[in-house]
Amino acid sequence: MIAFYVSGHGFGHASRDIEVLNELGRRRPEIGVVLRTSAPRWIFDLTLKRPVDWRPRESDTGVVQIDSLSLDAPETIRRAEKFHRDLDQDAAEEAAWLRREGIRLVVGDIPPLAFAAAARAGIPAIALGNFTWDWIYAGYQDQLAVGSTLISKIREAYSQAVLALRLPMSGGFDMFREVADLPFIARRSRRRPSETRRHLNLPDDQPLVLLSFGGYGLSRIDLTKLRDLVGYTLVVTSDVTANRRDDMPASVTRMLLPHGVEMLDEKALYAAGYRYEDLVAAVDIVVTKPGYGIIAECVANDSAILYTSRGHFPEYEVLVREMPRWLRCVFISNEDLLGGRWQEALDRVRDQPAAPERIGTDGAERAADQILGYCS
């Protein structure tokens, strides 16, 4: 029995962990998994192919996002301080729970609580991720109180893991006793782009551009400002909140969209047997803010990225530095993004040559190798 702890921050942690869980289920379906996370269950229900014992709990506080492009640094640190102030007591209670449940291995992406609790229970724990929370919070030194123990507590918890599986574009990890580097864990489309375009009634005679801003959305984009965009078809999902109100039917929202913008119902996409990675593979360019999940999917499915800044988030600098190695990408400012001035940036990314390097996207398989090694 494995207890799998998944950060509730964004969708990237959950989406990559689902790939690992599916691979574990494919190889060793008899191994039970208890899922500990505050991430929404529907994310898992969409693509998780193996049974899990769903036991939700908040295991970290992540970063407080206002929307996909802005965050609240003071509130981020306040919540992290409050949560980790009682880490020792919470770890003791969680350790007792682990023993009662008969857990033999803990995997965490990448809540410190998972490793502190496993150590107290005498159970091996494996870390998985591309950054650590101490590294993230150290980027907000101005918000940390004098004498704060937040960073040291998190590092101490991490140091008790037996192994860290480090993904590309990483930060932190110096406190782990053993580190194994993995390629990308990425959702890879199994469909031809032409098949997906045909099913979704998307044009096949010009580049497609997908707006993808994750779980936090971006209601500040006014798509009507893109009326003069030439040579591209924009694709948005029904979860994009631009140009709509919560009480507005999707049919009305579609009427407000300018020519050249196609709105898809993401739930209908899944109901028809398609997945978000199929959509990423079917388009030419993804407009987004940098995040591990969408970068990994674009690498795996050979799509380019037009990216914008996402506020002061330490991971951003690493992602922006590293991703040109593996995919075509161009920056657009928040001002030009929100102002609808996309033409020049889209033309630039469309005309870019192929990225100079290739990297594997079989990280889920490699992670499963390591995890199963501790299950023997």
**What radius of gyration results from the CA coordinates?**
21 Å
- The CATH superfamily label of the largest domain reads Glycogen Phosphorylase B
CATH architecture of the largest domain: 3-Layer(aba) Sandwich
Helix proportion of residues, in percent? 25-40%
Strand tally is 15
Class computed from helices, strands and strand pairing: alpha/beta
* SS field, number of helical segments: 16
Number of domains: 2
Strand arrangement in the largest pleated sheet = 3-2-1-6-7-8-9
Largest sheet, in brief, is:
7 strands, parallel
Cα end-to-end separation: 12 Å
Silhouette: globular
Structure, explained:
Helices cover 39% and strands 18% of the residues. The chain is an alpha/beta fold and 376 residues long. It has two domains: 2-185 and 362-373, Glycogen Phosphorylase B (Rossmann fold), CATH 3.40.50.2000; 193-350, Glycogen Phosphorylase B (Rossmann fold), CATH 3.40.50. The strands form three sheets. It has a seven-stranded parallel β-sheet with strand order 3-2-1-6-7-8-9. Helix 1 crosses helix 16, helix 4 (87-101) packs across helix 5 (112-121) and helix 8 (193-199) packs across helix 11. The mean pLDDT is 92.
